[in-house]
Specification:
Shape: globular
Region (Disordered): 310-335, 480-506
Largest sheet: 11 strands, mixed
CATH topology of the largest domain: Rossmann fold
Pfam family, one: DUF87
Number of strands: 14
Helix content: 40-55%
Strand content: 5-15%
CATH architecture of the largest domain: 3-Layer(aba) Sandwich
CATH superfamily of the largest domain: P-loop containing nucleotide triphosphate hydrolases
CATH class of the largest domain: Alpha Beta
Protein name: ATP-binding protein
Radius of gyration: 27 Å
Mean pLDDT: 81
Structural class: alpha/beta
Distance between the termini: 68 Å
Low-confidence stretches: 500-506
Domain AAA+ ATPase: 24-213
GO molecular function: ATP binding
Amino acid sequence: MQVAVEMGNLKDGTPANLDIEELLATRLLVQGNSGSGKSHLLRRLLEQSSQWVQQVVIDPEGDFVTLSEKYGHLVVEGDRTEGELAGIASRIRRHRVSCVLSLEGLDVEEQMRSAATFLNTLFDAEHDYWYPVLVVVDEAQLFAPSVGGEVSEGTRKMSLGAMTNLMCRGRKRGLAGVIATQRLAKLAKNVAAEASNFLMGRTFLDIDMARAADLLGMDRRQAEMFRDLKRGNFVGLGPALSRRPRPIAIGKVETQARSSSPKLMPMPEATENVEDLIFTPDPEEFKQLPQQRTRPAPRPKTDILAELSRATPLSDAPLPRNDHSSTPEMSAEEREANVSSVLEEILSDPQSGYRTDSALYQDFLVRLRMRRLSGSPMALSEFRRRAAIARSGVDADTQDTEAWGTALTMSSLVTDDLKAVFLMLAYAAVKNAPCPSDERIARAYGTYSARRARRLLDYLEEQGLIIIHADQSGKRIVGIPELGSETAPGSPDAPDAASPSAEAAE
């Protein structure tokens, strides 16, 4: 039986239909920045198809629990043991009940483990229960990250494996994955690559626009259109949607999320006793405190390595000691000097700018272990911060100045991948050095594209962090108002002496 649900309207006003039977066989990927209307699109799909196919929604923010009010979806709270979740998922698959797995209130690692347990149980169902199920995963980059984050490696592999099974092997078991993500660059490629249908919404970063254009088979020059899409408008392609890219305006929904976009509202009228109103507690507040719902304490987790380290040897004979066990304890100053030396070794490689921070971080940890450095390792966030400072080229004398402290504070306003670029410009402005060339800026960002470097400068100027102008000869000058200084004129086309291409030319 062929069933087509109406997702909205095409540009000419005709209905934009989505073939549910084809979707079950070919899967769907939705991408768009926060506020582009991804959740609205998923809600429209779920509402329109609820009477035709069983639905399972992995909901990290608790936005889709309102489907239960009108469409009867069972709400499953994620703060349960893995055994409970597995049993519930098994019965849901067996009895064909649509549900929403609400992971609201859990930390990221608990969300990943709960979702993985639920998805793996759906996947491992007996052959007799391989009924068609539409499995919708919102914020899929949380459950299938492209690189390791702050969660444990075991949790990451468990969650990524469940998402890979859903998208790669789920079709024969009746599981049709519909995944939504804010950024394609953050989603594991082997998960995204299995989707044959695409709905691409508004996005601004050039790397995401380029990937979206590639997936839709569009010319990269057309990628700029994704910046201009309105909220709730997507470009669709795929066997269940259209044979060529077509813009779709998503239709209205009948249910609403518990959370919504903030809207302006008038301020309340000023009262005379504001201080008494704020600083004097209301007696009713104390009565309500015991009634507040508290989440249960997180389930205890067994650290296998810690248990093994506390285990008692089988023999009373002393264990052989390695040569390094007698190494004297290193002072804090010596350890910091060694850490700085290792960091300098890694970043001195001209190719280091084109490697991901996670890969550099792993190399950094291995080198620390090779030097037998004791103590807890540097966190990934601190490594990124120090790597950005090192890539800026700042000298020791400048780091002690008040202007550089201001620049570091301002760098917190940009994302991690832009910190090195901003600090490089700030250092050049403080020293009144020539403005870095496009090639040098591109290397600090980790790309070979000079065009992208110019876009980065435009983005920083749009954010009000820098001001770009040129002298009479056309050389570029970058000023930073908060520092009260600007760079000397520099040629945008000047070669980067540290780049591999420059070394090859020599």
